[in-house]
Amino acid sequence: MDQSPEAAPVQNLKNFNLLLYITEAAGILLIILVGIWTISYRGGFAWRSQPGLEFNWHPLLMTIGLVFLYANGMLIYRTQRTVRKRRLKLVHSGIMIFTVLLTVIGLVAVFDSHNLAAPKPIPNMYSLHSWIGLASVILFCCQWLAGFLSFLYPVVQQSTRAAYMPIHVYFGTAGFVGTIAACLMGLTEKAFSTLKDATPYSDLPSEGVLINVIGIAFVIFGGLVVYLVSQEAYRRHPQPEDDILLERRKN
């Protein structure tokens, strides 16, 4: 839970804006690279009429939602430190809801692409990528629900909220790290399953190079985000009006 103004440490925002700009640029570049990969090398997008192309929605939407938007949802309390906390809670929740929407569409796309594949369906949920990915999605959804009930529409006591806050922060970050790990596993799995025969992955064709660059971009973006959300010096200081939402709920 945020500390009282009297107990708050001296805020040191040195290099914060620079790191934030670099982080956002890395995230946007990551989305662009995934878009180039899925369009230029994987054939673009379709829906159930072409299951092979429907799959391409999966990496793109997961990157936009469960990586870029997830990260910005976590960072919102540090990037918008002068905005009233009531509004920040609503924005944070809204970003996470949109993330869930994109994630659901991305999951539908990958399951469709497997189940509708010809000449026979592709098995689901057998790889470590799928296990880690689904676990991260479930953790994300549980985090959102627990956060909604604890902070946005509180149904628990203040002492319980205070005790839960560090848990919420920790598992939010853990879920994000799990998502990055799942993305790296998915990239590797796709590279080995598609880059073979005339253009094996071991020969490092142009698509293989791009996949590796995308993987590095995931690591850089994920590392920067975790650094920004873990630095106490970059934490948003509480403001007197922060408890207005809670007071209105009580009244």
UniProtKB/TrEMBL annotation:
Protein's UniProt name: Cytochrome b561 domain-containing protein
Gene3D superfamilies: 1.20.120.1770
GO cellular component: membrane
Membrane topology: Multi-pass membrane protein
SMART domains: B561
Organism, as annotated: Trichogramma brassicae
Compartment(s) of residence: Membrane
Stored Pfam families: Cytochrom_B561
